[in-house]
Amino acid sequence: MKKSVLITGAAGFLGSHLCDQFITKGYRVVAMDNLITGDLKNLEHLFPNPDFEFYHHDITKYIHVPGTLDYILHFASPASPIDYLKIPIQTLKVGAMGTHNCLGLAKDKKARILVASTSEVYGDPLVHPQPETYWGNVNPIGPRGVYDEAKRYMESITMAYHTFHKVDTRIVRIFNTYGPRMRLNDGRALPAFIGQALRGEDITVFGEGTQTRSFCYVSDLVEGIYRLLLSDYTGPVNIGNPNEVSLRSFAEEVLALTGNKVKIVNRPLPVDDPKQRQPDITLAKKLLDWAPVVSRKEGLEKTYNYFRSLPEAEWHRQPK
Ligand code: NAD
């Protein structure tokens, strides 16, 4: 009998790569998504597979899945600033009610559940790099608070289900990840830079571009999540690439890759934008024997080739 896994947020960037991973590893995959930011195009190659099924469902509503489930991967949530600033209430609801429903399902099915948390739980961090023991510096009433606090609540209710209902839980804190199937117009730095370069527009960097991020290629992230799911560890684990870069240098790397002759221009920094971000992955290395292996050069090339191969109309598509 194949093991079965439910993946929420399956039509999104990370969810769709997770579906591929679990199908490749020989699982039966039940994918669920309400398509609020996701796209069925990310999954259509899996539709003919008899081990794959898709439910169009909003997980803030009661979730019913027939049959057994061994694992649940809870990835449904708007994830980019453009998305969660446009749909703040849905973001809070999916972090709160959506997570509650997933945990209830895990309890009912006696399934192990892994929830997708984020480096945003550290807010604008006062500790650098960020270990899992750091409690964070989040502004609960700032514009980003809807996402950061939804994820902090998600961690909290997950631990409560673990402690009080003995549900078998895992928490991954994901740092900025990139790769094919991101949306060019989702407002995150890399697709924004590549989209502007493809359209021949100047590349926009917020502030002076001295703020840093650490970008992890999607295949590295998926491998880390897979290992964490199969591990015994129930505390939060950072998964990300510690190779930190300033946004200015990152924009220059993208520009060099595309060979375009556009300029880099500066725009005002958004409110509460974190100044630096770098995962401390000591725990993941020790527990999971995991570390990222894809260099930024290789990952950027793969991602750029994906976006370049899209029909030109996609380069100009406006956000949903
Ligand atoms: P995404 O927007 O591409 O995917 C999210 C998916 O969730 C979409 O397909 C969307 O339609 C679906 N969804 C949202 N609300 C839903 C609901 N109520 N019911 C059912 N489906 C719903 O984003 P992503 O980058 O793939 O992120 C996936 C998860 O990983 C999110 O939980 C996000 O917070 C987390 N995460 C991502 C990153 C990253 O760098 N990509 C970093 C940290 C955390």
UniProtKB/TrEMBL annotation:
The keyword NAD applies. Its EC number is 4.1.1.35. GO terms for molecular function: NAD+ binding; UDP-glucuronate decarboxylase activity. GO terms for cellular component: cytoplasm. Its cofactor is NAD(+). Pathway: Nucleotide-sugar biosynthesis; UDP-alpha-D-xylose biosynthesis; UDP-alpha-D-xylose from UDP-alpha-D-glucuronate: step 1/1. Keywords: Decarboxylase, Glycoprotein, Golgi apparatus, Lyase, Membrane, NAD, Signal-anchor, Transmembrane, Transmembrane helix. Its main location: Golgi. InterPro entries: NAD(P)-bd_dom, NAD(P)-bd_dom_sf, UXS-like. CDD domains: UGD_SDR_e. One of its GO terms (biological process) is D-xylose metabolic process. It is found in: Golgi apparatus, Golgi stack membrane. The keyword Membrane applies. Pfam families: GDP_Man_Dehyd. It is a single-pass type II membrane protein. Signal peptide: none annotated. Gene3D superfamilies: NAD(P)-binding Rossmann-like Domain. Residues 6-303 form the NAD(P)-binding domain. Belongs to the NAD(P)-dependent epimerase/dehydratase family. UDP-glucuronic acid decarboxylase subfamily. This is UDP-glucuronate decarboxylase. It comes from Niabella drilacis (strain DSM 25811 / CCM 8410 / CCUG 62505 / LMG 26954 / E90). The lineage of its organism: Bacteria, Pseudomonadati, Bacteroidota, Chitinophagia, Chitinophagales.
